Amino acid sequence: MVLSIFSSRRTVLLVILLLAIVTTIMFAHEEIGSLDTFWRPPPPRAHDHMGHERDLAVVMPVNENTDLQFYGNMWVNDYLHPVCDFEGDGCRIVCNQKSTWETLDSKTICFTKALKERYRGTEFFIKLDDDAFVDKTYIRELMYKYHRHPKPVYISDFILNLDGENLNMNNTWYGNGKFYMFNRRLLDCIDDKIQYTGHRNEDAVFGAMVANGCGTDIVMVPENDDKIWHRRYANKNKFINLTAIPNRVVEDWEL
After folding, report:
1. Tens digits of per-residue pLDDT, 3-25?
2. Are 174 and 203 in contact (CB under 8 A)?
3. Cα(130)–Cα(62) distance, rounded to whole angstroms?
4. What pLDDT score does 6 carry?
5. Would you give the distance in Å from CA 85 to the centre of its chain?
6. Mean pLDDT, residues 89-98
7. SS3 sequence, 80-106?
8. Cα(230)–Cα(197) distance, rounded to whole angstroms?
9. pLDDT tens for residues 135-179?
């Protein structure tokens, strides 16, 4: 009699335990659907690609008249890599040659070689003039869209170069120098040993290096001019002249 009661109680406990296990499994299935769904990582967000300074380098050729304090207080400061004539505070790339209109092409070749050799862990690059400004959200969107793109990417306002003296530069496209953006894959194939005769527009030289080294199998993306300001910034109650001017004394009435 006692044995029978004990056996019945054990059977009841076993049934309750089995019901609890089945109920738990059914509840979990309804909540998460499947293990594959539950453990799938969330899709990347645009700003994830600007979380580390190695994701982006903003290259800005500067001279003694460039106001780095201005850009030091802008969002680009965290990614800024000034290209200087000679060693100085804040200089990341040094070309050891005084900037003039006649030497800007060689300065472009100089910083291209430096980027290709030393910035292997950086995915995106922007060349920005010191009288230009670009929207941060726009750059985030571009970095998100072309993250780990399998082809060289070149983003700018493109101009066709016609050069009757240098065949390796003739009929090549180049980006407007105020802003152009490119990825690491473009640097991997760019021809930084280009040779040509005569002084040439520095941005046309960069475009020719791209054309000669990477060929036509590149992604050329027209820029959004509404997100880039050149020589002046104007929006709502702000109007800022970005154009370089000689240093001068400010009169009292201007303050």
Report:
1. 454 456 666 566 666 666 655 55
2. yes
3. 7
4. 44
5. 24
6. 88
7. EEEEECCCCCCCCEECCCCCCCCCHHH
8. 30
9. 999 999 999 999 999 999 999 999 999 999 999 999 999 999 999
Per-residue tokens: 116? 């290709």
Q: Which tokens go with 176?
A: 């407007």
- Determine the Cα–Cα distance for residues 98 and 104; give it in Å rounded to an integer: 9
Return the structure tokens found at 110: 């100089």
Give CA–CA dist 223/79, Å, rounded: 20
Are 95 and 83 in contact by the 8 Å Cβ rule? The answer is yes
Question: CA 211, CA 205: separation in Å to the nearest integer?
Answer: 10
Do residues 24 and 17 make contact, with C-beta atoms less than 8 angstroms apart? no
Beta carbons within 8 Å of 83's beta carbon, 6+ residues apart: 59, 60, 61, 62, 91, 92, 93, 94, 95, 107, 110, 111
Sequence-distant (6+) residues with CB within 8 A of 212 are 168, 172, 191, 194
Distances (CA, A) of 229 to 108, 131, 132, 156, 241: 22, 9, 6, 13, 10
Q: Considering the chain, what is the average pLDDT of its residues?
A: 83
Name the CATH code of domain 47-241 (choices 3.30.450.20, 3.30.420.380, 3.90.550.50, 1.20.1070.10). 3.90.550.50
Contact 56, 124 (CB under 8 A): yes
**Between β-strands 228-230 and 132-134, what pairing exists: parallel, antiparallel or unpaired?**
antiparallel
Residues, the chain: 255
CB 243 within 8 A of CB 177: no
Supply the pLDDT for residue 33: 37
Q: Which residue has the tokens 């967000």?
A: 45
3-state SS class at 151? coil
Helix or strand run (H / E) with residue 159 = strand 153-161
